[in-house]
Amino acid sequence: MINSLCSKPAKRGDSIKSRTPAGLPGWGPRPGVERSGTPGSFVSEGRAREVGDSPFIISESRRLRFRTLRALDVHFGHQPGVPLRSTPGFMLPPATRVWSLLLMIAAAWLFLVPSTIANRARMVAQRPQTHNAGTLVAVISRADANGDQGNLDAVVLVDNGKLRQPYPEYNEAAQQKFAAQFFASGQKYRLTFGGGEVGSATIKSFATGCNNIHATATVEDNGKIPAQLSALATNSDTLGRKPSSRRIPTDAERAAINLLVAQIYRSRGATRAVLRTVVTTNLTATDLDGDGRLELIGSYTAESKTKARKDLLLIAEPDGMNFKAALVKFQAYKLPPEGFDSAIDFVDQLDLDGDGVAEVFVQQHGFDAYGYAIYKKSRGTWRQVYTTAGDAC
Ligand SMILES: [Ca+2]
Ligand SMILES: [Ca+2]
Fold first, then answer.
1. Looking at residue 155, what DSSP letter applies?
2. List of residues 6+ apart from 84 with CB closer than 8 A
3. pLDDT for res 104
């Protein structure tokens, strides 16, 4: 059963307070969100890498080369167990050997080239229809709490496990071309929430916000996506085919994660006074690796009287009866006079590259703008592998 994920009010005496997160926008800029970069953030990330770096993904060209090698083996007539050069009696006159070699090369060329072309044509023909247009994953947010209208932000194109920008920034012609292809009226998208399909969205129209395009859609989610939360929409037939897994944390999970959060803040110099200001903006339980045990993803903020901010995005994994930190994205910075913070909120999860571990989508607040980022677990470590603009005014 899928429940709302917003944090429940903290119990009396909890050292970490909770509040319901603000509705996540899908249209235009929001206060406190930035297009790119994070003023004051001192937490550095590794260079963004494409998901396609995974050794489990075999590229088309590598598959083709493998087939070519097999074809060479067949068309040269090489008999298993009989090395050609060491065959006894294989001693022809030099001219005969040259002609023989030329004939073999010509024969191989005649067989190999059509075979390779045929293989490539067959592979192209077998691709799903969505591949030609590209597999899009968008963030969809409810336009209002009671209606069935949603707003879509195009976040990422997934191409053979690699993550690509939907269109170049600040390029209106490219935005319009993209919209004509992906945001045409009547186009259907599958909705996923917690990594599994929960409904559909049908595009109504699109328009330009401040500096980016956004689509509106009619949402059919069977009441499975809480109104204040965002989900993902995709034109892929294959992504998000596992059961949806996303719920409110239990009291025991909440107590365990609060201890971990307090420990993380203390280890980064937070005083007792600062600890008392820590607020849970979102806490979600969801199974990221499909092992049946739910991970916790939380967003926290703390603010001193002098506007010194300490924000935390945390992915915690089950560790016996407790949880251990798997990703700690900690930001300490001075809140600018305009009040725009740099906090990061969990949006949803989806396994984009089919390696069995879902990628984590987040929304980054900033200076009169907002953006999205994707985190991927690779060789045991969560890393930010992709960022894109939401909108900026
Ligand atoms: Ca798990
Ligand atoms: Ca994955």
1. E
2. 76, 78, 90
3. 56
- Two tokens, residue 336: 């600018």
Q: Which numbered ligand comes closest to the C-alpha of 291?
A: 1
Q: In DSSP terms, which residues pair with 365 in a beta bridge?
A: 370
- Whole-angstrom distance, CA of residue 65 vs CA of residue 253: 50
Q: Which whole-number Å values give the CA distances from 325 to 13, 33, 265, 315, 358, in the listed order? A: 24, 26, 12, 6, 17
DSSP-H helix ranges across 127-198: 129-133, 172-182
Question: Cα of 32 to ligand 1 centre, how many Å?
Answer: 32
Q: Give me ligand 2 centre to Cα 17, in Å.
A: 32
CA dist., res. 263 & res. 308, Å (int): 19
Within the chain, which residues score under 50 in pLDDT?
A: 1-15, 19-96, 98, 108, 110-131
The residue extents of the domains of the chain are 17-53+245-392, 60-79+92-126, 130-234
The one-letter amino acid code at 375 reads Y
pLDDT score recorded for residue 139: 98
Query: Environment class of residue 262 by beta-carbon count within 10 Å: exposed (0-12), middle (13-18) or buried (19+)?
Result: middle
DSSP 198-254: EEEEEEEEEEE-SSSEEEEEEEE-TT-S-TTS-EEEE--SSTTBSPP--BPPPHHHH
Amino acid at position 286, single letter: T
Task: Report pLDDT for 105.
Answer: 53
Distance CA 293, CA 285 (A): 9
Q: How far is the CA of 329 from the centre of ligand 1 (A)?
A: 20
Instruction: Collapse the DSSP code of 161 into the 3-class scheme (helix H, G, I; strand E, B; otherwise coil) and give the result.
Output: coil
Which ligand places an atom closest to the C-alpha of 54?
2
Coil, strand, or helix at residue 270? coil
CA 117 to ligand 2 centroid distance, Å:
32
381 and 392 in contact (C-beta within 8 Å)?
no
The number of residues making up the chain comes to: 393
The whole-angstrom separation of Cα 6 and Cα 223 is 16
Contact 213, 183 (CB under 8 A): yes
